[in-house]
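Why do we care about 3D structure at all? Because function follows from shape, and shape follows, mostly, from sequence. That is the central idea of this module. The next example makes it concrete: a single protein chain, its amino acid sequence, and then its structure expressed as tokens.
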Amino acid sequence: MVDNTHQTKTNEWFTPKEYIDLARKLMKEIDLDPASNNHANEIVKATLYFDKKMDGLNREWNGRVFLNPPYGRLGGRSGAGVWINKLISEFQAGNVTEAIVLVNSATGDQWFQPLFDFPICFVNRRIKFYQSSGNKIQPTKSNVFVYFGPNVRKFKRVFKETGHIYLPK
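And the structure:
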């Protein structure tokens, strides 16, 4: 039996619709979900998504991005950290115009540190993710939404009911 609050045999934890709706309310559209699959995109409805076979880490990202990265280890590094670095790189290059990333609130982890340069919503509960099987699973840590883009006031307004908003100095 799998303990749904700790580890599962898959790193595919799909974002519930209510949070995708908030991302859409903020960004209007989602142009790209770079770490996805057909099942997840039924909810995200990104214009373009990259699945595992397409390898979003080795492609250029453009437009408005929603990212719920897979966890685990990639080349001995945190998977979340590798995806976060890619997002920051694409945003700084001007390819990504706006983005929402959903990750664990692992504030003490090295990979999380660069996110403090961006507005963060510390979710006031642990999100119940879903899997393609229909099972709901919950992480051991709380979650955050991090915003990349020019509409910080709108981010605060849209996500304020979801949790505490942190703004960088």
